[in-house]
Amino acid sequence: MSRKESLNKLRVTLVRRRDALRRALDGDLSLLQELHGQKTGDPLDAAADTIQDELNSQLVENESRELGAMEDAIARFEAGTYGNCESCGKPIPITRLRAVPYATDCIDCRRREEDGQDGGNVVAWNRVFDVSEVDPV
């Protein structure tokens, strides 16, 4: 299969996934609104509802981010730039695009960015606090 055919298949996958995410988000948002209107009298139920609301809102946030990435990828496809690395301009391997259809960079550029070799600011995602000190004694 040629690269062009593979990219066209990926576009179909992107559109299907985007549509599925839109439907899921519509349902999730309406469920959040419905549940927000309900009141429970028991404090334990209220606490459980609060936790569930937080989990649902995080799920909606993640789905929204993925939806945005899908829509950006579809726009890049229509602009003729889909499948090319935004950093180096080289074609992104089809295997990477199959794994992450909304990828904007090749593996080498992604690794350089994550290692901080691209000259940008490196974010230590494994650190929770901005300072290294623990609570003072």
UniProtKB/TrEMBL annotation:
Domain Zinc finger DksA/TraR C4-type: from-to ranges: 80-114
ZnF start-end (dksA C4-type): 85-109
UniProtKB keywords: Metal-binding, Zinc, Zinc-finger
GO MF terms held by the record: zinc ion binding
Alphabetized Pfam families for the sequence: zf-dskA_traR
Spans traversing the lipid bilayer: none
Gene3D superfamilies xrefs: DksA, coiled-coil domain
Classification via PROSITE patterns: ZF_DKSA_1 (PS01102), ZF_DKSA_2 (PS51128)
Protein name (record): RNA polymerase-binding transcription factor DksA
Native organism: Crateriforma conspicua
Phylogenetic lineage: Bacteria, Pseudomonadati, Planctomycetota, Planctomycetia, Planctomycetales
Gene designation: dksA
